[in-house]
């Protein structure tokens, strides 16, 4: 059996916050990414014992789209369904255009990079290689996977460089075996700046409820600012938008009404997505008194069971005939490693995912500030316009 090892996304984000009223438009791709991202986030949260979760679903979706180019018809249909677009052509066109858009940005702000490694004993299918380089802006390189130490070192160097040193050594030599035929990678790197940073002098230790009866002290940032805001009683949560100085980028913070309300909120978002609420955000009409904890989260998941649950289990059992010349490949493992850090200067986020394939064949008086105290488990998302780049949950 030959294996195709696919690694997805590494990401980094940081920023300064200010209020701005940007007019974004919802797109069919944005809606599809939104719903798939919220489902994947819920699945990751449910499987996590820690309940502090960060992920970059877009990296997974991006490489599934690329993989579908060489997949069997059955697996291609499963991927199209998960990614939520009408058909294969529209799906690949949409992700190609998204790759083009992100590749045109300043790489110091945003990098979306794809890379395909192929074993020195094989060659990529001509059509797959063309699509990968032309439509997904992928680099292609030959590696000797029988020298697993050297292969891991090469991949880790690429990951370290693309994430500006924020994620190191995401792969180890023991994940590669002599029958590894190829590997696919995706990196998403974002570094923005809050327009109005939180003042470090305002950060104080405050109570954070990890349950109804238990609290811990967390370094908590403070900001008094006009922000976009929404209450959703059906969702059981309130939310605010923290825009970055760089146009198009924003963080959404979703605060459940109940201390133990995060699972219920996440369940509802997994069914309807977050964009409906995001696009209903409006000026609060008064300053928002925001308290939000500084936090840092690292997550590492095996995504095989999650992708089986989400209806793309065929990639683990059926050959993809169009990736490697003369040899079918199938997925054996999928994993993701992710990182996020939020402090007064901004937010930093990173994610790394892997898939292993095996081959067989107006008031008169100023109103009082609106209180928005993030003192309980909450959700957060980083978006570019209507595309969810990162999604996470913070519980303790």
From TrEMBL:
Record bears the keyword Signal: yes
MF terms in GO: serine-type endopeptidase inhibitor activity
InterPro entries in the record: Serpin_CS, Serpin_dom, Serpin_fam, Serpin_sf, Serpin_sf_1, Serpin_sf_2
PROSITE patterns reported in the protein's UniProt record: SERPIN
First and last residue of the signal peptide: 1-15
UniProt entry keywords in alphabetical sequence: Protease inhibitor, Serine protease inhibitor, Signal
Domain of life according to the entry: Eukaryota
Residue ranges occupied by any Serpin domain in the UniProt entry: 38-396
Residues that span the membrane, as ranges: none
SMART domains listed in its UniProt record: SERPIN
Any matching Pfam family: Serpin
Coiled-coil stretches noted in the UniProt entry, renumbered to this chain: none
GO cellular component, one term: extracellular space
Family named by the database record: Belongs to the serpin family.
Name the UniProt record assigns to this protein: Serpin domain-containing protein
């Amino acid at each position: 059996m030959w294996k195709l090892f696919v690694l997805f996304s590494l990401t980094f984000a940081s920023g300064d916050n200010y209020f701005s009223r940007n007019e974004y438009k919802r797109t069919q791709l944005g809606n599809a990414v939104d719903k798939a991202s919220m489902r994947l986030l819920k699945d990751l949260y449910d499987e996590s014992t820690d309940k502090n979760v960060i992920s970059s679903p877009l990296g997974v979706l991006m490489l599934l789209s690329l993989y579908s180019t060489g997949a069997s018809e059955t697996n291609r249909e499963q991927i199209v369904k998960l990614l939520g677009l009408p058909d294969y052509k529209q799906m690949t066109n949409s992700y190609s255009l998204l790759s083009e858009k992100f590749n045109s940005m300043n790489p110091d702000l945003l990098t979306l990079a794809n890379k395909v490694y192929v074993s020195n004993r094989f060659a990529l299918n001509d059509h797959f290689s063309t699509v990968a380089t032309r439509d997904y802006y992928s680099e292609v390189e030959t590696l000797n996977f029988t020298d697993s130490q050297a292969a891991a070192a090469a991949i880790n160097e690429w990951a370290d460089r693309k994430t500006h040193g924020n994620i190191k050594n995401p792969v180890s030599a023991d994940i590669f075996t002599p029958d590894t035929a190829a590997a696919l990678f995706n990196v998403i790197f974002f570094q923005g700046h809050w327009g109005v940073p939180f003042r470090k002098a305002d950060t104080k230790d405050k109570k954070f409820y990890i349950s109804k009866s238990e609290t811990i002290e967390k370094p908590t940032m403070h900001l008094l600012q006009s922000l976009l805001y929404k209450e959703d009683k059906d969702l059981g949560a309130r939310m605010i938008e923290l825009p970055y100085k760089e146009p198009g980028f924003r963080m959404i913070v979703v605060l459940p009404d109940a201390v133990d309300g995060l699972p219920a909120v996440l369940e509802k978002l997994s069914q309807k997505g977050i964009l409906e609420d995001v696009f209903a955000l409006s000026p609060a009409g008064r300053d928002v008194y925001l308290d939000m904890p500084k936090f840092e989260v690292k997550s590492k998941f095996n995504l095989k069971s999650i992708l089986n649950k989400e209806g793309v289990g065929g990639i683990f059992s059926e050959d993809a005939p169009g990736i490697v010349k003369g040899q079918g490949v199938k997925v054996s493992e999928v994993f993701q490693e992710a990182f996020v850090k939020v402090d007064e200067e901004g937010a930093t986020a990173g994610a790394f995912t892997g898939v292993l394939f095996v081959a067989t064949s107006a008031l008169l008086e100023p109103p009082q500030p609106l209180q928005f105290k993030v003192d309980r488990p909450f959700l957060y998302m980083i978006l570019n316009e209507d595309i969810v780049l990162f999604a996470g949950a913070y519980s303790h």
